[in-house]
Amino acid sequence: MKFCWCTIAVRNMEESLKFYQEIVGLSINRRFMTGPGSEIAFLGDGETKIELIHNEGNESVNIGHDISIGFEVNSVDERIKFIKEKGLDLESGPFQPNPHVKFFFVKDPNGVRVQFVENL
């Protein structure tokens, strides 16, 4: 069995696509309408994707506070600098719970906690 994607209901597709493309660095894999006012976009080049779903009739999304999605980066310090240059705030961190890993969190436009992790 393989993990295929993580689905995120979004308030604004364009704002969410901008975040995942510019901040996380994912490219659009597929994007299509699923009906009037309903759209899906898959992002990512690897095996696992992020699926964004937007429905015009659903202005509120319920994001759990205890879930995060993580992305590996080459340098946490460089990614923090990049995030701040883009005008975003860190949600928490950076943390280094052991000598082998360092990470921090930001929130996407919908409130999803996004973790950037460096394996040292």
Automatic annotation (TrEMBL):
Originating species: Geosporobacter ferrireducens
Stored CDD domains: VOC
Designated name of the protein: Glyoxalase
Source organism phylogeny: Bacteria, Bacillati, Bacillota, Clostridia, Peptostreptococcales
Domain (VOC) ranges: 2-119
